[in-house]
Amino acid sequence: MDIVENMKEGLRSVRANLLRSILTALIVAIGITSLVGILTAIDGIEQSVNESLASLGVNTFDIKSKTNRGANNQGRTEKVYPQITLTEAFQFIEKYSVPSTKSLAADLTYVAEVKRKSKKTNPNVRVIGCNEEYAAIKALELQDGRNFSRIEIERGSQVAVLGYKIYKTLYEENEKVMGSEVTFLGAQFRVIGVLEEKGQLAEDNFDNMVLVPVIKANQMAKGRGLSYELTVGINDPTQVEYAMGEATGVMRNIRHDRIGTPDSFELEKSETLAENMATITNALRIGGFSVGFITLLGASIALMNIMLVSVTERTREVGVRKALGATPLRIRQQFVIEAIVVCLLGGIAGVILGIIIGNLMSRAMGIDTFVVPWMWMLIGMIVCIVVGLISGYYPAHKASKLDPIESLRFE
C-alpha cells in the first residue's frame, strides 16, 4: 500500500505544480516525438519500398550486359564483353523452358519531349522499349486502356502506353485518351493505355515514362546499341536457384561462351535489392535513433534539474514525512515515481505526435501507407520510464538523506 500511496502522492504533486509538470513533460515529449517520428517515417519508406520489391517478388532475377569498360586493374586490362542484343534476348525468351514470366526492356532515352496538339511535357520523359510481360513483372496497373499485344510487339507497332503524369499534362479531365495520338522523338504514336499513378518515390518513376514496343524502340535507336535487360519471374519460388542455373546455361549457349570462361553477362537476384534496401534503412534507423537519443539526453538533464529544484522547495514536506515515520526508501520512491509519471505523460504525448508527424513526413514524400510502429511505441515508453528513473534517482536520493529536524526548520 505504501507504493500505491506514493504513486497517489506523485500524481498530487504533479497536479499541485501543473505548469512546471507540463513544461517538463513537453521536454520529454519533444525527445520522444523526434525518436518515434523519425523512425515512423523510416518504417513508412521501408514498407513502401518493400511493397514495390514484393510486387516484383523475391522469385525474380535480372539478366543484363556486363558493365566493365576495359578498366585497368593492377596492370591488367579487364575484358570488355559485347552487350546483349535484341536477337539474343528474343532467343532466350524462346528457349528458356522453366515456367516463368519473361520481361524484356531497354531504355531508348531519358530526355524525350512528348507533344499533343498545343500541349507538351518537359524534355525529361523516359522512353522504354518493352515486351508485353513488362507491366506484369513491374506490377503496373492500367488506369485506362490496355497493355501491348504480342502482335504489336512482334511487328513493332507505333503504339504507346503513357505514364500518369504525362496523361495529366497532355489531356483534360474527361478527354478521350484511347486512340488519340502523341508525338515524341520525331515519330507519331497511337495511345492504347494509361498507367495508374505510382508516386514519385516508386521505382523508376513510372509516372513520367512512356512505354513502346521493344522492336520499335530498337528501330528508333538508329543503329545505336540499346542496353537490353531481361527480368525473369519464376512461378515456383522454391525453384529460383534451379531456374537461375538453367538461365545461365541457356544464355551461355546463346552467347557462345566457352567452357571454363566467365559468363559474358550478369545475373542479379532480386533478394540483393531487398538486402541493399535493408542496409540503407538500418543506417537511417541508427541515425534517427541517435538524434532522438541526444534529444532525450537533454530532456533527462532538464528533468533532473527540475527535480532538484523540487526537492529544495519541498524540504519541509520531506521533514514532516520523516517525522511521521517515512523511511528513506519511501521518500526515494515518492520522488522517483513523480519523475516517472511526468516522463510517461510526456511520453504518451510524444508517441502520438511522433506517429502523426512521421506519417505526415511519409505522405509528403509520396508514400500513402499509414504506419503504426508498435515496436517504437513500446520502446518509447520504456525509454520514458528509464529517463524518469535515471533523472529522478539522484534528487530522490538527496531528499532521502535530509535530516528531519533540519528539514522542519527550513524556510
UniProtKB/TrEMBL annotation:
Keyword terms of this UniProt record: Cell membrane, Membrane, Transmembrane, Transmembrane helix
Subcellular localization: Cell membrane
Domain ABC3 transporter permease C-terminal: 290-404
Transmembrane segments: 21-42, 286-311, 339-362, 374-394
Domain MacB-like periplasmic core: from-to ranges: 21-247
UniProt key word Membrane: yes
InterPro entries from the UniProt entry: ABC3_permease_C, MacB_PCD, Macrolide_Exporter_MacB
Origin superkingdom: Bacteria
Keyword Zinc-finger assigned: no
Membrane topology: Multi-pass membrane protein
PANTHER family xrefs: ABC TRANSPORTER PERMEASE YTRF (PTHR30572:SF4), MEMBRANE COMPONENT OF TRANSPORTER-RELATED (PTHR30572)
Family to which the UniProt record says this protein belongs: Belongs to the ABC-4 integral membrane protein family.
UniProt name for this protein: ABC transporter permease
Source species of the chain: Ohtaekwangia kribbensis
